[in-house]
């Protein structure tokens, strides 16, 4: 049976889509979708597409090429743009605005192992899903606290494990990151890596619950009390990596596998082989994702540079994955808010 499409203008379809998603996703996720779909609306205007019914697989491919060239996108940025478009088009199918299964014709680049690993990162959407899952099923566990700390503070793995209980100042809501090479916890940037890191109220509540109810009362071999502690002492760097890979497998926090694998026989479901899942990521990819998310949210570069302990040059070269138009739009938004 052929479905009769109902005419709808692109801007109206996007407006309705964002209106529905508003109650389903975090505000940051909604803003990301709005930003990405803004480019789609601009393309529709240029191509004089005034009705979503007129979209075809060929036209969507033309948009992909235009978007790649217009934004000077790398493969990872192009993929995230097209993934958001696919989700939107799939929703449009549900309201009979486009042909059924049109979303299957939205193409995006595949990311081979040879792609620059600096582009691998955990998206804000996925980070929210991972942490929500842990908050519901493993609240204030060591894994939950570690993952939340990495995402919230943008810390390196070594900085997180270097924290002691005394470095957490609950009343003033901050962490003190200290270089202690003589007792086994040097920082990557040594004394230059020392800093005070502000915490949200929610993060403090989680840390308070961890310290009060879950953290084992142990010391490490140097007589220090590690904040992230196991029954054997300070949490190891390799264990932090295991936590990241294990927790970011989609089959853990969703009902399926985005790679169409048989979950029962997939090697990636083995805890020791979690890195074999194509979607699992390392702690550094979490850090990169958190930094990129903050940049996309419009947080000033200097604030992120100081908080994450990364120079402006390195931030621009290795972490900033925004395309030039997104940067321009954010500057425009900032000027509109601050202009007298």
Automatic annotation (TrEMBL):
Keyword Hydrolase, does the record have it?
no
Occurrences of domain Tyr recombinase (ranges): 117-332
Q: Which UniProt keywords apply?
A: DNA integration, DNA recombination, DNA-binding
From the broadest rank down, the organism's phylogenetic lineage runs:
Archaea, Methanobacteriati, Methanobacteriota, Stenosarchaea group, Halobacteria
Entry annotated with the keyword Glycosyltransferase: no
Q: Which GO terms describe its molecular function?
A: DNA binding
Biological processes per GO annotation: DNA integration; DNA recombination
The protein's name in its UniProt record: Tyrosine-type recombinase/integrase
Q: Where is this region: Disordered?
A: 320-340
Domain named Core-binding (CB) is located at 1-45
